[in-house]
Design goal:
- The protein is mainly β.
- The protein folds into three domains: 122 residues, Agglutinin, subunit A, CATH 2.90.10; 84 residues, no CATH class; 67 residues, no CATH class.
- Helices cover 0% and strands 33% of the residues.
- It contains no helices and 23 strands.
- A hairpin with a 4-residue loop joins β13 and β14.
- The chain is elongated, with a radius of gyration of 24 Å.
- It starts with a strand and ends with a strand.
Length: 284
């Protein structure tokens, strides 16, 4: 009888980075066995070694059970089971129970995450190679354009695929492709912190990611990148600064913009400053 398997889903999300370590490779998790947070070698790898899953420590004594790109220099996570509820760095484990469920438990035995697979007769869990990832948008407000330079409310459907060649095709006819389009390159589609949608391609020899497509090519055109009253100067990367008479609202977060250091009450004889050598003054 053909063996049934649990397929661990690969979901794209936010990017978390950490130093990669050498691990003992496993290709599956047998029924009744577990992966322990206490042992970094307890990982499962996909058949072509694209993905690895196991426990990932992102803070002191805080761990996710995650899937990441194996060959990325700085470990790039693509899915986590317990994003909002990290587990303890000692005693936590992912167990493939005898009833067919995958269960993540914390140090005290509390169930943090589990699969709904108890009605199946699976006998091993494997991490598969996934070539196509589906994308679904929640229903937008009527008439709302999600992307000024791309997706619109052309029709009521909201299905799309980002395939292994580097093409994005959607049911509402928003299509784009990576500049290095072709097979054999690992890519990820990311909504970045600045609100820009980008495709990143992995250089397998260096383990580094590079941008192979972005929705808004000029970062200074992204609304609010330097915040209210901030000045964005074109460059790689773009530079933010404050106009005379202003200072950063938060020096550690330029997107918070600039605040005046003067009394904003208009007075007779108030001077006007000329700002030179900048192309954009973006205000919130």
């Amino acid at each position: 009888m053909m063996m049934r398997e649990i397929f661990l889903l690969l979901l794209f999300c936010s990017l978390i980075k950490s130093s990669a370590s050498k691990n003992t490779i496993k290709d599956h998790l047998q029924r009744g066995s577990s992966l322990s947070v206490n042992d970094d070698s307890n990982v499962i790898r996909s058949p072509d070694s694209t993905y690895t899953c196991g426990f990932y420590g992102f803070q002191s004594n805080a761990y996710w059970f995650a899937i990441w790109f194996t060959n990325s220099k700085e470990r790039t996570v693509v899915w986590t089971a317990n994003r909002n509820t990290p587990v303890n760095g000692r005693g936590s484990k992912m167990t493939f129970r005898g009833n067919g469920a995958m269960v993540l438990t914390d140090l005290d035995g509390m169930i943090v995450w589990e699969t709904n697979t108890t009605s199946t007769d699976v006998d091993r869990a494997v991490l598969l190679n996934t070539e196509i990832s589906s994308v679904y948008w929640p229903s937008p407000d009527p008439g709302f354009n999600v992307w000024k330079f791309g997706r619109t409310s052309y029709n009521s459907s909201r299905m799309a695929v980002f395939n292994d060649v580097g093409e994005f095709n959607s049911s509402d006819w928003w299509n784009f492709r990576a500049s290095d389009m072709g097979f054999g390159i690992k890519r990820r589609l990311v909504m970045d912190y600045d609100g820009n949608l980008r495709i990143y391609s992995l250089n397998e020899s260096t383990g580094l990611w590079s941008i192979s497509w972005q929705a808004i090519a000029q970062p200074c055109n992204i609304h609010g990148i330097c915040g209210r009253n901030g000045i964005c100067v074109h460059g790689v990367p773009p530079e933010c600064s404050c106009p005379p008479g202003h200072k950063w609202t938060d020096p550690n977060d330029f997107s918070q913009g600039c605040k005046p250091t003067f009394d904003r009450t208009c007075l007779v004889g108030t001077s006007v400053w000329e700002i030179v050598d900048v192309k954009h003054l973006i205000t919130g």
